[in-house]
Specification:
By secondary structure, this protein is mainly α. About 55% of the residues lie in helices and about 10% in strands. The chain contains 3 helices and 2 strands, in the order H-E-H-E-H.
Length: about 80
């Protein structure tokens, strides 16, 4: 389980890495089954994505999984794209 500080730090690293490749890449987020606004890791990532969008004008592709199968399938699908 991630604590809020670790989730925010991870989102910051993800944001920094994505900014470096923003011109070449369309970011994608697969939210875990807890949902986008889970008051935990998913929400920290959503907040980081919103900040990224405000700074770059590039909005990520998002998918909210409702079960573990969808979660895995979405990761594979986005990785292939």
């Amino acid at each position: 389980m991630f604590i809020a500080g670790a989730a925010a730090a991870f989102a910051g690293v993800l944001l920094s890495a994505t900014l470096a490749q923003a011109s070449d890449t369309k970011p994608a987020i697969v939210f875990d089954t807890g949902g986008k606004f889970d008051k935990s890791f998913n929400e920290g990532v959503a907040n980081g994505a919103e900040r990224f969008k405000m700074e770059t004008g590039i909005g990520p592709i998002e998918f909210e999984a409702t079960n573990d199968t969808q979660f895995g399938q979405a990761h594979r699908r986005f990785a292939q794209r």
